[in-house]
Amino acid sequence: MTTTSGTPRRPTLSDVARLAGVSVATASKSLNGRQQVRAETRERVLSAAEQLSFSPNVLARNLLSGRSGTIGLVTHDLEGRFSIPTLMGAEDAAGTGKTSVLLCDARGDALREQYHVQALLGRRVDGLMVVGARPDPRHSLGALPVPVVYAYAPSQDPDDMSVVSDNVLGGRLVAEHLLACGRRRIAVVTGDATYGAAHDRVAGVREVLDAAGLAMTGEPLYGAWTEEWGRTAAAVVLAQHPDVDAIVAGSDHIARGVLDTLREAGRAVPDDVAVTGHDNWEILALNARPHLTSVDMNLEEVGRRAAALLFDAIEGRPSSGTEVVPCRLVPRGSTAPPHA
Predict the structure, then answer these.
(1) 3-state class of 268 per DSSP?
(2) Helix or strand or coil: residue 111?
(3) What does the pLDDT look like over 72-82, one tens digit per residue?
């Protein structure tokens, strides 16, 4: 097919309908898999489309399906360590389905979140994914005209769909690893006590130690998610329990502070004291001396699963509840067995 100027013209839906001997509406229904069309008619339309090398453009296809081909991602921590890998995983999953992603940063503000949600709905997104700033339950957005999936921070409503990382498993993994390394006097230094994740990680450690017939060395110390707190807390542990042979830190930042205090106290890591972190933030873990053993929360997988569940809901297969993604331990030099 050519235009009056002699240049090739893209075939249209009307061309397909004309070649197949059907109306434009019937051609459209056939190409979109609608049930109202007889099998032989659909075959004729598909054959005509193939002959003409017809491929409907994205906008036309979305208009015919009643969808926009976009999803909205609302994050509360765009500059943060945890939301970015989650969003990367979601975008990976969206890319495989040729879906565009509209990203908004609510910055931890509920009113800003509502504004962004309404703006995205005004853009006729097919679904929403909400990524929290901290891994604790958050309020539900309630009933919306499109499906919603919550990632990293679960919704408080059990009827919503949420995807989170397994913080209890993270605690279990480091405790099992330390026991396998021959450690028996294990202390825990973690972050903000208002974070459920901090308590979950402690619970995982305690579960493993209890099963091994061991007590935690001292009570877990809660503080800030900072290197400064790690330095302070490690000094407290050494003063109260000088025979400690392992310290589980609730984050990589805290672990870096622990390493500083041990070095200043003349305690070799890992020969005298093993140290573990949580988050597997490589800029911290790989620049520590020695390199830091840490728990990776698999946040990209959290994002991928959340996006997959959102696409399922958009296709009419909604689900509810909280899906927990396993984390994994990344062993490095800070936990080599004594006298290895």
Answers:
(1) coil
(2) helix
(3) 999 987 666 77
